[in-house]
Amino acid sequence: MSSVALPRSVLVVGSGGREHALVRALLASPAQPRIVCAPGNAGIAADATCFPVPADDVPGLVALAQREQIEFVVVGPEVPLSLGLVDALQKIGVPAYGPKADGARLEASKIFTKEILLKYKIPTAAAAFFDDAEAAIAYLRARPAPIVVKADGLAAGKGVVVASTHAEAETAVRSLLALNPQSKIDSATAGRKSKILLEDCLTGEETSLLVVVSGCDYVILPTAQDHKRIGDGDTGPNTGGMGAYSPAEVVTPALLARIDREIVRPSVDAIAAEGIDFRGTLFIGLMLTADGPSVLEYNTRFGDPETQVVLPRLATDVLALLWAATRGELAGFRLAVKSEHAACVVIAARGYPEVYPKGDPIAFPPAASLPPATFIYHAGTAKNSTGAVVTAGGRVLGVTALAPTLRIAVDRAYAACDQVQCASKYFRRDIGARQLHRS
After folding, report:
1. Are the C-beta atoms of 373 and 284 separated by less than 8 Å?
2. Around Cβ 187, how many Cβ atoms within 10 Å?
3. Taking the C-alpha atoms of 365, 367, 372 and 374 in order, what is their torsion angle to the nearest 10 degrees?
């Protein structure tokens, strides 16, 4: 890829830990591009110029790209993808990494994805779709519990319920069908009924793959596993993710080859067969069942916090990788991966994912006092009127460390977490435990 001219200015869209990891990875490119971000956060602002344009403001982002003479846009979150940001940028001649709205629908509509999985016989759980509560309840009563109830559209992380009893499932059905369709994302849904998906509950160990896709070509990034639940021992409610590690050793080379053969290649081919020219990240959520790997979901962007452990392990120029995928030049791209393990511990505001405080000052340790190869990604942070960095979201920071072993990486990340001072600081103490116990 050294002969390919890379963009000199890049706009990263988003404001979370994922976007901070992307900014840092792009800054490390030998091409030394100018990086700007919208809207960014307090940590990203220390690394790049930030503009207060919301991630869901498509006209505002397009105008920003024009005004700042941006040559390449990397879209982080799912909402701007679903709103057609990439489509709008293409119309003005600005290349963007991420699928257009038709590809983003794979995340924006769980039913759309499930129909593709079933149509192309890609391993997944049996399911049915409903827009009527009584019909859905009649169906679920004929299925064994537990059963999974999913809202069709994007629901800010609140659209999936794993119901352990039929009574719990019935409550979830009525609740999720009461959600309003996201007419902002797709005006064609305005006035339509909400829809839900009822899905058999798969058991096993969850993992996920981040796959950089360009049409029918793709590159599988290093494996990772995250910790969804708020409490130690995987207890309490689900969150956006409380930590992650890479590689996920449960995905052995033989299993990864099987996943590639039975799921990744068929998924990429199926998306292309549906007429979607997908150029971006296909995040494949997997359940490793006793019968083999099965697809739980597709997302159409980098995962969070998986990105915070996957990107630091790449020896490849990330800018060159994303640029090649966007331009349809991914065939033959060779990915270089470091041998180190990576661990990320998410520092959240106490009370997340329910009610939590905002505006608490954060005191960071001096860089010299951090363990080796340890860095702090900002997520829910901002600056107050005095210029101090304060909490501004549920997940506040992602503390990531690289090391020769996972044990050392975890120890380094926790040593850094202990040095961060914040009144509402909360984090799990067992990130990586599943793999460490297995080892």
Report:
1. no
2. 8
3. 70
When computed from its CA atoms, the radius of gyration of the chain, rounded to whole angstroms, is 21
Contact 328, 214 (CB under 8 A): yes
Which residues fall within 8 angstroms of residue 242, CB to CB, at 6 or more apart? Answer: 226, 227, 228, 229, 230, 305, 345, 346, 348, 395, 427, 428, 431
> Residue 413 belongs to what H/E stretch?
helix 406-419
CA angle 36, 42, 46 (to 5 degrees): 55
Phi, psi (rounded to 5 degrees) for 289:
-85, 175
Q: What is the pLDDT of residues 179-193, one digit of tens each?
A: 655 545 554 444 456
Strand stretches in 107-258, DSSP E:
127-130, 147-151, 160-163, 196-200, 205-214, 217-220, 225-226, 229-231, 235-238, 243-246
- 281, 211 in Cβ contact below 8 A? yes
In angstroms, rounded to a whole number, what is the distance separating the alpha carbons of residues 364 and 376? 9
Among candidate residues 295, 309, 234, 235, the one with its CA nearest the CA of residue 266: 295
Condensed to tens digits (0 to 9), the pLDDT of residues 276-324 reads 999 999 999 999 999 999 999 999 999 999 999 999 999 999 999 999 9
What pLDDT sits at residue 276? Answer: 98
Degrees to nearest 5, angle at CA 14 with 330 and 53: 125
168 CB-contact burial (10 Å; exposed 0-12 / middle 13-18 / buried 19+) = middle
* Dist. CA 301–CA 299, nearest whole Å: 6
CA distance 415 to 392: 23
Amino acid at 209: L
| Per-residue DSSP letter, 260 | I
Which residues of the chain carry a pLDDT beneath 50? 1-2, 183, 187-191
For residues 182 and 109, is the Cβ–Cβ distance under 8 A? no
Specify the pLDDT at position 183. Answer: 47
Evaluate whether 133 touches 173 at the Cβ level (below 8 Å): yes
Burial 8-41 (b: 16+ CB within 10 A, else e): eebbbbbbbbbbbbbbbbbbebebebbbbbbbbb
Does the pTM of the predicted model rise above 0.90? yes
pLDDT per residue over 17-31, tens digit each? 999 999 999 999 999
